[in-house]
Structures are given as structure tokens and as C-alpha cells.
Design brief:
transmembrane transporter activity; about 100 residues; transmembrane helix; membrane; mainly alpha; about 0% strand
Length: about 100
């Protein structure tokens, strides 16, 4: 699973962004995504440390993190489904080319 996830993470975001946002601003989109990732990796340990200081053990935090990731995945799936309805049909793209 780790290999599958790492491989998918290396390939899918660029293809997703190009499909949904086009290739004109792909550099700006990638840099914004990288900035969000760096911010999250900087804030996460601080939040976890504060929770530990307040008596929430790390294994207990994992349950909250798992719930957060599940909710984020659900919201992402809903967003992709909604955005897909706004994209032109693939056959319309082929005719335009």
C-alpha cells in the first residue's frame, strides 16, 4: 500500500490539476499546493505537541486524524464529482481539436 500510495501521489496530482484547471497556470497551481503542504507539515507537529501537553495521548490523536482524513477524502470526492459535471464531455474536446 505504501508503494501504491507513493507512486500515485507522484503522478496523479499533476494529471488532476492539468485536467481540471488546464495547463496554462500549472506552475502557479503546483507552487500553491507545495506551499500548503509545507505549511501543514510545519503546523501539524505544533498542534500535536499542544494536544500532548493538554493530556491527549498520541494514539488517541490518531483516531481524530483518521476521522479528519476520512472527511477530507469524502469532501474531495464530492468536489471532484461536482467539478466533473462542469467539464466538457470528452467527445466535445475531441471534436474541438
Amino acid at each position: 500500500m505504501l508503494g501504491f500510495g507513493t507512486g500515485a501521489q507522484a503522478v496523479l496530482p499533476g494529471a488532476f490539476w492539468a485536467e481540471f484547471y488546464g495547463t496554462r497556470h500549472i506552475g502557479a497551481i503546483k507552487s500553491a499546493a507545495a506551499a500548503v503542504m509545507v505549511f501543514g507539515s510545519a503546523v501539524g507537529p505544533g498542534i500535536s505537541g499542544l494536544l500532548i501537553d493538554r493530556g491527549v495521548d498520541f494514539p488517541d490523536q490518531m483516531l481524530g486524524i483518521a476521522a479528519y482524513l476520512g472527511l477530507a477524502g469524502l469532501l474531495a470526492a464530492l468536489g471532484v464529482r461536482r467539478a466533473a459535471r462542469l467539464l466538457p464531455a470528452p467527445d466535445a474536446l475531441a471534436r474541438a481539436a
